[in-house]
Amino acid sequence: MERRTPQRTAIEETLRQAGRPLTPQELLGLSRARVRSINLATIYRTLKMLTDAGDAVCVHIPGEPPRFEAAHIGHHHHFRCDECGKVFDIAGCMGSVATFAPPGFKVRDHEITLFGTCAQCAGATEARGQRS
């Protein structure tokens, strides 16, 4: 069993409270606001321990570095902003996607990622347009 340290506690709390999947670099920056003595090696070691224990899950976005989020969220999907690059959770699911599979195929699982512009970036774009 891993020893409970202030660094590990900060990483776990940051991951739980983030409300969206984080890259290891994002997790490092946010965790350092709680405990300055965190480094990237500690982030990776803690993420491995948390994913092995089932307390965190890896979120894969094609062509992107892996992101991590707390596992307690349950089944949901993601939205990736083209402007800021952040990935956000989308609550819930549209329902059975098995109807999209070819006849005779059995769907085991699915993951859906929407791509576009988040509300914050969309607002910034509109504000720039109004000033022009």
Structural class by SSE content = alpha+beta
Intertermini distance: 58 Å
For this entry, what is the oligomeric state of its chains? single chain
On the 0 to 100 scale, the average pLDDT is 89
CATH topology of the largest domain: Arc Repressor Mutant, subunit A
How helical, in percent, are the residues?
Answer: 25-40%
Judging by the overall fold, what is the CATH architecture of the largest domain?
Orthogonal Bundle
Name the CATH superfamily classification of the largest domain: Winged helix-like DNA-binding domain superfamily/Winged helix DNA-binding domain
Number of E strands = 5
Describe this structure in words.
The chain has four helices and five strands; from the N terminus they run αααβββββα. The chain is of the alpha+beta class and 132 residues long. The longest helix has 13 residues, at 40-52. It has two domains: 1-73, Arc Repressor Mutant, subunit A (Orthogonal Bundle); 75-132, 2-Layer Sandwich (Dna Ligase, domain 1). The protein has helices at 6-17, 24-32, 40-52, 119-131, and strands at 56-59, 67-70, 77-81, 87-90, 113-116. It has a three-stranded mixed sheet, with no helix packed on it. It has a two-stranded antiparallel sheet with strand order 1-2.
List its traits.
Arc Repressor Mutant, subunit A; 4 helices; 3-stranded mixed β-sheet; Dna Ligase, domain 1; 16% strand; single chain; two-stranded antiparallel ribbon; alpha+beta; 2 domains; 132 residues
Summarize it.
This protein has 132 residues and is α+β, with helices and mostly antiparallel strands.
